[in-house]
Write a structure and sequence with these properties.
By secondary structure, the protein is α+β, with helices and mostly antiparallel strands. Helix content is 20%, strand content 41%. An eight-stranded mixed beta sheet has the order 2-3-4-1-5-8-7-6. Strand 10 (183-188) and strand 11 form a beta hairpin. The radius of gyration is 18 Å and the shape is globular.
Length: 297
Amino acid sequence: MIKIKHFDHISTASQNQKRELNLFTNFFGFNIRTEWHSEEGFNGIGFDVPGKDRVGWELLVPDNSESYLHTFLKANKGVGVHHVSMQIDSAEQAIKILRENSIEPLITNDGSHHNVYIHPKRGGSGLLFQLFEGDPWNDPSIPEPSFTHSDNTLGIKKIHHIGQAVMNQVDIQNRYGALFGYHSVMKGPRKKNSDFITNVMQTQTNEIHWELISPTNEKSFIKKFINERGEGVHHVTFIVENWEKAMNACYFHNIDTFDLYKSSINGAAYLECFLHPKDTAGMLVQLVWEEKEGIWL
């Protein structure tokens, strides 16, 4: 198992920096932490995200016609989650373990970060994983910063999980268990549904959860998703502080919600809904409010 020290960030690639910057700051309520230009042909913006675990977000935008990001944007049919990034203890250990599991990584080393990449088609099940040895971009030892945005933001408390659409949950669970130490903590769905099954896993650092979601029949919307886009990120889930505030933010920004669901666990209520990818940087977003912290999962 690869020793993971910190789940550092989620990265979005887009051709429209102005639109995504407005979304991430004025709707999601993220803070800009840093901005940079890469000689690899893109501009980058790093964001602080609410949450004591210090899992951050990143926006990458190609700055010329030769940027490698265009390949992703074409294959993805536009903006979307480009990769996830995890700080590791040893790049050499990661390379050894990946090869023992018949996964040949992509390797770079710029002197400050020794990067080990798992390709979406060679071990990542539709998602690029960046494993890096070096200092974190989103340092978990630094206290959570202040977020002072207007009342028209969602009021996010933290990133709860990434949902990944896959055909074979057993294979992926076994692979992620062997590579990253992920382990199952809940299988569902909680709501009765014959179209898909879910498997929520705890990650090694406990900073974020990971959900596998798979179709159970040919007519499943998850099967349609995989047929159209391939395996990969299906949704990202945020916990919000106040449901009314979150709904008001959606109304203010003209973002429709759908699949509203209300229930309770052990007497504590929770609410959830979804936001369409066309409104939220190419990713399906799930919002969850809990009457009692941690009751939802």
